[in-house]
TrEMBL record, chains A, B:
The keyword Transcription regulation applies. InterPro entries: GntR_C, TF_FadR/GntR_C, Tscrpt_reg_HTH_GntR, WH-like_DNA-bd_sf, WH_DNA-bd_sf. One of its GO terms (molecular function) is DNA binding. This is Transcriptional regulator, GntR family. It comes from Aquimarina spongiae. It comes from the Bacteria.
Amino acid sequence: MKLEILNNENHDIQKKIISAIRDLINHKNLEPGDKLPSERTLSEKFEVSRGNIREAIQKLEFYGLLESIPQSGTFVANIGITALNGMIEDILRLEEPDFKSLVETRILLELKTAQLAAIRRTEEDLQAIKEALDAYSEKVINGEDAVQEDLLFHLAIAKASRNSSMNTFMLIITPGIITNFEKYHVCDKNQAFLGIQEHTDIYAAIRSQDPKLAKEKMKAHFKILYQYCYNQ
Amino acid sequence: MKLEILNNENHDIQKKIISAIRDLINHKNLEPGDKLPSERTLSEKFEVSRGNIREAIQKLEFYGLLESIPQSGTFVANIGITALNGMIEDILRLEEPDFKSLVETRILLELKTAQLAAIRRTEEDLQAIKEALDAYSEKVINGEDAVQEDLLFHLAIAKASRNSSMNTFMLIITPGIITNFEKYHVCDKNQAFLGIQEHTDIYAAIRSQDPKLAKEKMKAHFKILYQYCYNQ
DNA sequence: TTGAGAAAACTGGTTAACCAGATTGGTTAT
DNA sequence: ATAACCAATCTGGTTAACCAGTTTTCTCAA
């Protein structure tokens, strides 16, 4: 399931189906563990293709609200009807994140991953971060574009944080960040040179296992982005 | 696409396909914008079903590395080969988040959403939070289980934070948290009664638009969970 | 009436055929 | 030589048929 990469038409259909499933659960008073009507039945009742039904169910499965068991059926997850209604409402309301949300979340995550990396990094992690840093520096010094190497430096830190959720979330927001960076031309050459020092500072803090300093240096690194984000 | 809800067999196949796609991109020196071989071709070459190929491509599409265009082809996204290799490596390495990662991430997100909610909440947001709080209190006072109402209170705050990414991430980690909560019996009745006061404090801080206080009260609310998480 | 057992119906998952639009290559007219 | 056209091919997306288990229903003996 893609989070929000559906075209508008399919998107609307899916929302309608999810609403319909919610209404059906409420109307039939289905409780946790109860079985939903079959995919075929639902596709008839809602007058959509079975594929659409499957997509919607998979989305709700992704958020832990339903569970499909092969050759048996789809069941309401072990979560109360109240929470289920609340979560479905939230899921339906979810919208494509704006750039500001992405940046805000990225900064939040990166300050934490820097902290955690300083505490938990292994020697291998440190080595990987160093290599990413060197690759970045070399590109910048040669006057080449270093967006990719910049990114990989930050992902190396996320990896070293040893937190699987944050690592995943970093990967999820990365494409959106990159796209918008290029769209709005947030970076420029001056920043790139300044970036070498900032990256080096972050690396040094993680190497010396100083979480507070690592967070501080990461914060400094994001200062311009932070301002850009909050001054428009 | 599900993040990590595939059975092991399919999971391994998908990882192999993603690796193979990466190798193919490297071997053929495909650059951003270049077209990948067709799904049918890949399914022959890798000796897997076309459905498997489609799933793998959709996953890489989800992370912004590929782009499928109907009736035309699948293209390498506008991201350099270096970043692409790095990100694929990370994606392949991603593992099911452990409970500690989930809790750590939840606390990070909730401290921020409380802050942001205090700043940005509308009157409607405040009203919704209040209703969630009242529903929670009533359940606890009646001695009933209030896990769902607890959850909805926190989701109401996430909604009021007006940050779409964080809201999404809260919804993503919620099922894992709930499951593990029940598995490890993190909550007990005493906490529930204490929770009323803590929730009320958080609500009051958000109402009076005091972000610092909101964060503080949320931190206090998570104190036990925090300790549970870091003392094992 | 009840129990077991078998067969029919139904389940989510998978596969292969089909679709409409895009692309390509060749042909022809200018 | 080149531009225009058209048909054959190829594309990702969609649909319908099929599959292997599960669940229900029916049958018939005890």
